[in-house]
Amino acid sequence: MSMAGVVLAGGKSSRFGRPKMFEEYKGVRFYEYSINALFNSGVESIYIVTNDQLAPSFKNMKAKIIIEDESHHGPLYALSYAMRTIQDKDWFFVLAADIPLVSTDFVREMCTLAEQSINDIIIPITGDKEQPLLALYHHSCLPIALELLAENRKSMRPLIEKANVKYVHFSSDQKDFMNINHQEDLTQIINKEIT
Fold first, then answer.
1. Is 98 among the annotated ligand-binding positions?
2. DSSP string, 29-98
3. Is 15 helix (H, G, I), strand (E, B) or coil?
4. 101 is an annotated ligand-binding site residue
């Protein structure tokens, strides 16, 4: 089994007000937490998928940069572009760039599931919420993704509905899945640590 780690980092961060992937938590930029969780789990081929405006700001020797040929088309486009660019991997472990509490243990657990899986997608569920941006996608998803994009369907939901999916349940309060959409979200994490 071969695997690529794919950190999605090409969004507009419109709710945050500035490119949130470059914000810091405990002195480390958000996107680096995703890279470190992948690297420390044994995923050696790691890529940051981003756009040409943001690309020069990423500084991490563990990851290569993939610049999308078209910007701001959403995570399904970013995943399909990564799959078209990286053709020698079976699995693609997708992580968002705004999850500073993601852990090596979580990534390792998910990778173990992929070793024997016959599914196209392995997706965590926390409570009743699917987590498509902390999930594993097999290269076999690419034709479905391209078909959906040709129909201008850009969300991950139609891909999940069409593919053979394994769901993995995690606690609804598991920290790995806490993403930062607003500046208040970061303040909330910091305040929890203090109290």
1. yes
2. EHHHHHHHHHHHTT--EEEEEE-TTTGGG---TT-EEEE-SSSS--HHHHHHHHHHH--S-SEEEEEESS
3. coil
4. no
Spatial CA neighbour of 179 closest among 112, 136, 126, 138: 126
62 is in an annotated binding site: no
Q: Is 20 annotated as a binding residue?
A: yes
- State whether residue 4 is helix, strand or coil: strand
Q: Across-strand partners of 4?
A: 45, 92
Q: Is the pLDDT of residue 191 over 70?
A: no
Alpha-carbon distance 42 to 18, whole Å?
32
Reported as a pLDDT band with limits 50, 70 and 90, residue 15 is: low
> What's this model's pTM, rounded to 2 decimal places?
0.92
Alpha-carbon span 167 to 97, nearest angstrom: 22
Contact 72, 146 (CB under 8 A): no
Q: How many CB atoms lie within 10 A of CB 131?
A: 19
Q: Which domains does the chain have, with CATH numbers?
A: 3-194 (3.90.550.10)
Annotated ligand binding at 55? The verdict is no
